[in-house]
Amino acid sequence: MKKTALVTGVSRGIGNAIAKKLIADGYFVHGTYNTGKKEAEELKSEAKEIEIHQVDFKDRKQTQELIEKLKQIKFDAIVNNAGVFQLEKFDKYDLKIWDSTFEVSLNAILIICLGLQNNINKGGAIVNIASTDGMTGSFGGMAYSASKAALINLTKSLGNNFGPKGIRVNAIAPGWVNTDMDTEVVGDAPELTPLGRNGKPEEIAEVASFLLSGKASFTNGATFVIDGGYTNVDPIMKKEADLEQ
């Protein structure tokens, strides 16, 4: 019997790659998008084994309407990938950015997991897409970093509560991955990454596929850092070492 997955944010980047990988793995995917209608429709045209749903997770009513729409479906996998990033100005901070970021990147994930908790088959799994930004302080992206830090913790709590039901919950914290969310400075990241490059969305998709599979059957509440070693590096220590060369 074909397995069924829900993947949020499938129109671009990591979510798009995950949707394609799960379809290749034999899943039928229910995918969400917000503004990327053209890209989502192209994915549906290309992949076939996918149904797309337009949802703006900043609007809680739309999140709840999605859950009602999916109430008759049994899922084997849920991938909470949809997120939002906006640069902030600390001296003129707009709390609307904070609120909308948390609504998309944290609250909607909890609401989906709670709303569909009885729709997940025993042996199923949930993967949350966090970020290495959630493991360090930020400057102009405090809302994004804080929401991802909270998501890492929420993943542990969800793992505690879903575990007795035979459902595993894990997170992936990508480092610098080349997607359409890139800012101008992303190209500088390889200089501090031991592997000497940024990641590819497909590399994150491979990890998601593994975590959803039986190969990760005893993995629960964990966050997997996939960053090419970027967070291993202290910039000053690297400069000291470079000076000795």
Describe it for me?
The chain is an alpha/beta fold and 245 residues long. The protein has one domain (3-243): Rossmann fold (3-Layer(aba) Sandwich). 40% of the residues lie in helices and 18% in strands. It contains seven helices and seven strands, in the order βαβαβαβαβαβαβα. The protein has helices at residues 13-24, 37-47, 60-70, 95-115, 142-162, 201-212, 235-243, and strands at 3-7, 27-33, 50-54, 75-80, 120-129, 168-174, 223-226. A seven-stranded parallel beta sheet has the order 3-2-1-4-5-6-7, with helices on both faces. The longest helix is centred in the middle third of the chain and has 21 residues, at 95-115. The termini are far apart. The relative contact order is 0.14. The mean pLDDT is 95.
First-last Cα distance: 58 Å
Shape: globular
Strand order of the largest sheet: 3-2-1-4-5-6-7
Integer tally of domains: 1
CATH topology: Rossmann fold
Helix segment count? Answer: 7
Instruction: Find the CATH superfamily.
Output: NAD(P)-binding Rossmann-like Domain
Number of strands: 7
Taking Cα atoms only, what radius of gyration do you get, to the nearest Å? Answer: 18 Å
Roughly how much helix do the residues carry, as a percent range?
A: 25-40%
Mean pLDDT equals 95
What is the architecture at the second tier of CATH? 3-Layer(aba) Sandwich
